[in-house]
Amino acid sequence: MIREFTYQALPMRVLFGPGTSAMAGAELDALGLRRGLVVCSPGHRALGEKVAAALGERSAGVLAEARMHVPAEVAAHASAQAARSGADSTVAVGGGSAIGLAKAIALDLGLPIVAIPTTYAGSEMTPVWGLTGNSEKRTGRDLRVLPRSVIYDPELTLAMPRELSVTSAVNAFAHAAEALYAPDLTPLIAIQAEEGARAIAAALPWIATPGADVAARSEAQYGAWLCGTCLGATTMSLHHKLCHVLGGLGLPHAPTHTVLLPYVLAFNAPSAPEAMAALGRALGGPADPAAELWRRTGGLGAPRSLAELGLDRAAIATAADLAVRSAYPNPRPVTREDAERLLTAAWSGADPTTCADAPPQGDVR
User: How far apart are CA 157 and CA 87, in angstroms?
Assistant: First the structure.
């Protein structure tokens, strides 16, 4: 076999283990930073204030304004607040919303980020930013938004509700899944993607069970780290495009990933046999990873349909239009009709195998 690839390592420091969130101040010191503005959501204000208290004189205050999908107006206000605070950095505490808002500040003001994730979203491992306005989510890549340091403390994930634990983990699994059929997949990322998917799959039933299982949470966070690395190193495809489109229409991020992923995997399966084989191994051997993922997540009480998430059926046509408006790589060509058929199946919660017919001919969109 003759291999050809280009791999670019991203500059980042990772601290992993129970109790490591207490080291945020030391991380600022190690990075030569003096005052960090703690960024979190309103629901994580108490945790944000705890982190700020631990920072002591290094704290520039708490900005508890993060919202899902980073609305542009929230980002603008946060940047103004950060500028007034005198901070030379941000400490993002929470899930993708908090880290996304810190990235918006970094994009605007250049403030470096120390990230302390409390979910499995994976944004902390990527130079990808996103802003939402006028019912559309825009994304881009910029090394200024890549966190300088990431602190993974599984103890901070113990308070996640059952449904969020499941949907956030499937969100992470989606990063690995799409990395495995990405056009810029490299050998190292292929290994990380399969291992990350395996760790998430192994932890899934345990993190969905009530109780403070730090070992299971640690395994899930380990998987999220690997999956997030894959997200940052490769080009995502149809699944992430559809999730961004639906996010712009107001659907919740992790639950949307959870509902859509089996349908997209079923659709792409005929054109990505090696990726499906790797996902099958990660899930313990099933020949049809899309069907197996659908079965497992449903058994854990995860949402099964876009209708359940509040999507109006009339919005499917708009989402399908947006999904094919600009070109992006996908192993199987995607027409507008394909996008609408896939979204309709996901809206109703139909068996995802209905999306797995033979691939059509045409250019990849």
Answer: 27
Length of the chain: 365
21 and 129 fall within a common domain: yes
The reply to whether 110 and 93 lie within a common domain is: yes
Q: Are 114 and 36 in contact (CB under 8 A)?
A: yes
Rounded to 10 deg, the angle between the 273-282 and 187-207 helix axes is 40
Do 206 and 87 fall within a single domain?
no
Q: Is residue 1 part of a domain?
A: no
CATH (domain of 167): 1.20.1090.10
Residues 195 and 284 in one domain: yes
pLDDT by residue, tens only, the chain of 365 residues: 788 888 888 889 999 999 999 999 999 999 999 999 999 999 999 999 999 999 999 999 999 999 999 999 999 999 999 999 999 999 999 999 999 999 999 999 999 999 999 999 999 999 999 999 988 888 899 999 999 999 999 999 998 999 999 999 999 999 999 999 999 999 999 999 999 999 999 999 999 987 779 999 999 999 999 999 999 999 999 999 999 999 999 999 999 999 999 999 999 999 999 999 999 999 999 889 999 999 999 999 999 999 999 999 999 999 999 999 988 999 999 999 999 999 999 999 999 998 987 544 443 33
